[in-house]
Specification:
With 88 residues, the protein is an all-alpha fold. The protein has helices spanning 3-14, 21-27, 34-46, 48-55, 59-87. Helix content is 78%, strand content 0%. The chain is elongated, with a radius of gyration of 20 Å.
Length: 88
Amino acid sequence: MNPVVFEAIKALLAQNKTPTVALTKSMLSEPVPMPMIIAAVSQYKNNPEAFKNMVIEPSTQISQQKSSQLDRIEQKLDKLLALLEAKK
């Protein structure tokens, strides 16, 4: 399945809306052929529980990824500041 379509359906489910072709198309961030949208919505309608299980991500995992990225950025910034201080 196209990741853009999956993200659109994921966003609709997060808003507690039932994905339809029209709603899914309205949520797309880039153009996607209509047959791909129809196929994705059909997949959802055939097995909504499988979609919901794939969509639900632990928020702690996401926040850990963001904090680790932030830690790496802070470390790089500290190194840059130390280099600038050393040149003064």
